[in-house]
TrEMBL record:
Keyword Cell membrane belongs to the record: no
Name this polypeptide is given: ATPase AAA-type core domain-containing protein
Coiled coil: 151-237
Pfam families reported in the protein's UniProt record: AAA_2
Length: 301
């Protein structure tokens, strides 16, 4: 336990346990003192948003801001997650909410989180499904819970810029299909104009239709170019990669075999999983913010 003149203690793992009842969270790393002028405007915006939504948790907010600053400045490792933070405290003290607000800031949607409810993994067999069942085993046809696709899906599908870009791609493809249809009609009219039995009236109408189709195709090309320009602008707003936010809620509820998986993820930022289509593949966590929550030790704190 901490001495009476301290409201925190540092564990051997480097985690900082907050003993002051006003700040019951557990944050990672060291004590964070971020000086004004030494951080980017994005970090200031994040701190302002978190402070406006989360009350009475300045140390937890600083831990998240420090992690985001490292990510924002490119201080990343290929064999470690961006950060691993454990929030320890009683219910209704903002442990999960701070992660949701961070997701809202990072991806534009508070649900852009890869969440694992640890109470659903109280048996070793359930935990094994996170890595995927081996071939010929029961449920081997299911995607592993910790596949690369699932890890990144929440970040991509909930990112507003990404979704807007996807919608533009859909619109572009629709216009391309419409253009092909118009060109087929154009080719058909040109074939009809070659006929020798056309009346002058039919010929004149076909010429009018031909001009209208050409004008229509020109409009489609202009719309496609506008969509491409908007798509390029959106691409500038999107990060080079979509960092994932993984939340392991109520970590103490899971079977202890989950800890073995987490140790490998935290140590190497990688996990070998078994997928039904690709067989054994590796999920990378080097672009992942990992958060854990727990109510353990509340009486002592």
């Amino acid at each position: 336990m901490a001495s009476e003149d301290k409201d925190y203690e540092k564990t051997e793992s480097g985690l900082l346990i907050i003993h002051n009842p006003a700040f019951p969270n557990l944050s990672s790393g060291e004590w964070f003192e971020l000086e004004e002028g030494e951080e980017s405007s994005s970090v200031k915006d994040l701190r302002a948003l978190l402070s406006s939504r989360i009350r009475g948790q300045p140390r937890a907010i600083e831990a998240v801001c420090k992690a985001f600053e490292d990510y924002h400045q490119g201080n990343l490792s290929e064999d470690k997650p961006i950060v691993v933070i454990l929030f320890l405290g009683p219910s209704r003290h903002g442990k999960t909410e701070i992660v949701k607000v961070f997701a809202e800031f990072l991806h534009g949607d508070r649900n852009a989180i890869f969440k694992i409810d640890c109470s659903d993994y109280q048996n070793p067999s359930d935990v094994n499904l996170l890595k995927g069942a081996p071939p010929a085993f029961i449920r081997s046809d299911e995607e592993p819970g910790l596949s690369q696709e699932k890890l990144e899906e929440a970040a991509r599908k909930n990112n507003k810029a990404f979704n807007a870009a996807e919608e533009l791609v859909h619109q572009y493809n629709q216009l391309e299909d419409l253009k092909k249809e118009k060109k087929r009609e154009l080719a058909d009219i040109r074939e009809q104009l070659k006929r020798s039995d056309l009346t002058s009236e039919d010929h004149s109408q076909l010429v009018i239709n031909l001009r209208e189709l050409k004008d229509s195709i020109a409009v489609i090309e202009e719309e496609k170019e506008n969509i491409l320009e908007r798509w390029r602008e959106l691409k500038k707003q999107m990060p080079k990669f979509f960092p994932s936010i993984m939340l392991l809620d109520e970590i103490e509820e899971a079977d202890r075999s989950l800890i073995g998986i987490l140790l490998q993820v935290m140590d190497e930022a990688r996990l070998t999983v078994s997928t039904p289509k690709k067989g054994r593949t590796v999920t990378r966590f080097h672009r992942t913010f990992i958060f854990m929550t727990s109510n353990v030790g509340m009486r002592e704190i």
